[in-house]
Amino acid sequence: MNIDQLIPDGWTTNRDLCEEAVKMLDKFDSDWTYNIVRTRNKKFGEMYSILIMDEDGEVVRRVYPRPA
Asked: pLDDT for 3-45, tens place per residue?
């Protein structure tokens, strides 16, 4: 997965897209940890994002994948 396909500091309603991105990211760089987080939005419902964490468990960035 190319970093250009990730949008920083945002959310998406497409959980499947986030799950696919996490699988690809984990294959690309397994030194980092990738977790899907969710929130609830009154207008859009469930929203998802990916937390990228370093070896110490510190959050490096929160991103979501660019829709195809």
From this structure: 667 999 999 999 999 999 999 998 888 889 999 999 999 999 9
Nearest to 51 by CA among 28, 38, 66, 35: 35
C-alpha–C-alpha distance, residues 2 and 5, integer Å: 6
- 5, two tokens: 């396909």
Q: Which residue has the tokens 């969710």?
A: 38
**Does residue 67 surpass a pLDDT of 90?**
no
CA gap 60, 13 in Å, rounded = 22
Phi, psi of 3 (to 5 degrees): -60, -25
Q: Which residues pair with 38 in a beta bridge?
A: 48
- Tell me the average pLDDT across 59-66: 92
